[in-house]
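Inputs:
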Amino acid sequence: MNMDAPNLPQVDGAVDLHRIKSAQTATPITVAMGDGIGPEIMRAVLAILDAAGAQLATEFIDIGERVYLSGNTAGISAAAWDSLRSTKVFLKAPVTTPSGGGYKSLNVTVRKTLGLYANVRPCISYAPFVASSHPNMDLVIVRENEEDLYAGIEHRQTDEVYQCLKLITRPGCEKIVRYAFEYARSHGRRKVTCMVKDNIMKLTDGLFYRVFEEIGAEYPEIERERYIIDIGAARMATRPERFDVIVTPNLYGDILSDIAAEMTGSIGLAGSANIGEHVAMFEAIHGSAPDIAGQDLANPSGLLLAAVMMLVHIRQAHVAQNIHNAWLRTLEDGLHTADLTGPQAEQTLGTQAFAAAVIARLGQLPQHFQPVSYQNRAAEALSNKPTYTRKPPALKAMVGVDVFVHSADDTPDTLAARLRGAADTMHLQMITNRGVKVWPQGFPETFCTDHWRCRFIAPGGDASVSHRDIIALLQQLTEHGIDVIKTENLCTFDGVIGYALAQGQ
Amino acid sequence: MNMDAPNLPQVDGAVDLHRIKSAQTATPITVAMGDGIGPEIMRAVLAILDAAGAQLATEFIDIGERVYLSGNTAGISAAAWDSLRSTKVFLKAPVTTPSGGGYKSLNVTVRKTLGLYANVRPCISYAPFVASSHPNMDLVIVRENEEDLYAGIEHRQTDEVYQCLKLITRPGCEKIVRYAFEYARSHGRRKVTCMVKDNIMKLTDGLFYRVFEEIGAEYPEIERERYIIDIGAARMATRPERFDVIVTPNLYGDILSDIAAEMTGSIGLAGSANIGEHVAMFEAIHGSAPDIAGQDLANPSGLLLAAVMMLVHIRQAHVAQNIHNAWLRTLEDGLHTADLTGPQAEQTLGTQAFAAAVIARLGQLPQHFQPVSYQNRAAEALSNKPTYTRKPPALKAMVGVDVFVHSADDTPDTLAARLRGAADTMHLQMITNRGVKVWPQGFPETFCTDHWRCRFIAPGGDASVSHRDIIALLQQLTEHGIDVIKTENLCTFDGVIGYALAQGQ
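Outputs:
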């Protein structure tokens, strides 16, 4: 490996990390040593990779605390971006975000900037060698990583009402769902479970589920299953052994993957991958644990299993398999770091000694656990998957507009009267408050905020409207002193209504 | 009790449910017998209430399957609404929604129409008498029940992008948070935990947390705690004994309450309350289980504990306490219905025999569990809590507008050029795609959908804009053939920016 980073921490003597691999056979990767326990677990992992014969040409970048504190609010320099764009493979140790405002999450920045659309998190129990109340758990969560509420588009709209946009897109759904099925196929998994809330969110989560069915049909050997997220999360939290691969939108996946990781018994053992069309990032799921940094106490296993995922990704499947099996055998031999409690025959090792124990078992297979088996075709399947192909456009027709109004002084009836007095070119069909229809024929019990959604359609009912019609409506409302705060066009696509009816409509 | 419902199923002979209470002392309540196992568990519960001396004047309404199939898509008649509005207290057995489209969820309809803003769900383990992997679990989830993504406002906006609005309001937050703290105080609970995702959703979830801190400060004897929902859900799923009362927005509460109920070991033992300013509804959390209906197999415990919550609500705390303690004693005596597995000394009873066993223990206290103690002041505290008081308006200034554009043919640069060529009255500040800034200075890796958010501000930068300025902008864009699909005004409130900056801005 080529370790030419100027800030590289001192390396333990036992393994020569400075050996240079030939440029012909080595795959370039970018490595960040991170903060807190980052450098010591990365040293341990690089030592194991090296001993196992991984063919890597490493470029080291400096990210995290020192970069933040130098005045770079993103925590990552332009040179680091260049390395990531060049190698397209990123093995990352945990970093520390300094306390105090203004520092942006490095993970969010990397993920959004490089379009890492899939977060892949295997959650596996290692009972009886690691205590777990769910000994047969072995599932993988494939979480959409770019959209949903995490697009971060928020507006305060009135004195009382704040809004965040949940965006679900067809390309986003297609990419994550296809990734999940390709992952299942290439990793010998038999079932993919989709978790959504499409009984409530029929358009957004409905799209995710529809794409799941469409693309899943191309994988007839893989079972498809759907859960509503509330019931699905409850099942996963109590009977995780029922699940295999779970694919789900961003927010649900965020919650599910934290639950699943914690249920395995130790978040110190889990690695994750963030996959994009161009670049992939591999890391442990735990943080930088500055309280135990530099004491040779930290568990390198999470980062090691992330590195195993990376090796599969770059088609060094044999090396990945060798390391993974040696690591399982090490656990079985009762050797572990101080964070775990294990069987009676246990022996607690420091970070580097644990790495040496794994190295000593390279070439051995686990006796209790099923040995893992990786093949390069897994990576090929994943890297050859089709990128998104834009569909031909539907025939879009505009049939009305939802106009949102800020008013603290109106009742539904007074507002309806004001709107109808102001607007004579379009027809007021209904008013809702927090989604509940309050006009016409509302219920007296409905609590009303100062935020009203007023649905206007063409006077004829099912005629279409133009942008000019909507602008004319906004002019009339403005002239009558109505405080319009936002609009949402109502459209049909190939004749299918593209908006939800109101509760009670 | 007054049971004058025409469709009332036959009642077992042992207990005379037809005894009429004097109108002076009895509290009117509305009762629905429901579908599937509903009638038999409701009969069992009413028998226990009667034997314990509950002073109830019952009005029976017909809801659910028969009403749906008669052509009423809401499953509830006008006469039933009248009863609910009159008694303001609803004890409801589970109902069956017929399969096939067009039938609306009765629970959603009742909740939204009557403004039942708080869903209250105690989740308690009864180990060792009911098997549970979390024997010390005793928490209450207080879930906001009206807003969030469940307002159901969805729009398909382009060929590729679908949107759902998440609405979080100050009155909604104040009502649910105050309810949670009043509940904690009146039920002798010591801690309220708020779960939100305000590190990502700083405006919406940020408001919920801010209100939690504001209102929580009025309850100095109650500890306040906050978790980010992903980590909080993981903690609850693995160490539920750490939690006491949890207050959370609608979607998170939906997921958490299903997880927690399933973790207790039996969803057949949980009741819930849906609380509004005017009306309250009490029910079991399980469904109508038509497969075991009419066989005297069903467990009436969930509905019974819901009825106990109802009795506290209507200030018959002594009766509630008597029933709850007798029920605990019954469990301890190893008596239960067929759905539970228990200790060796167990005896499996039918629905009505289980009710008789509870009745036989009225006046007895549990020996293993702590006896429950209810006082009427609990109900008084809750029913006297202040309703929402509208705040004085902030000084709102409009400073720009986010215009959303549908275009499949543009790159960020070509779109920016078209927008700047069309609009000369306002200044294009940035363009984002799924929340990621793509102009100016975007990253080449960012995947772009056909849905662009284009932020326009006043030419001077920090000057304010008028509704007429926005309309003029829309006119210019329309004249240049730009397909505007929605707008979001950008405002400051008392000088505080009321919108999120984009990632990378």
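Remarks. The first strand of chain A starts at residue 27 and ends at 32. The mean pLDDT of chain A is 90.
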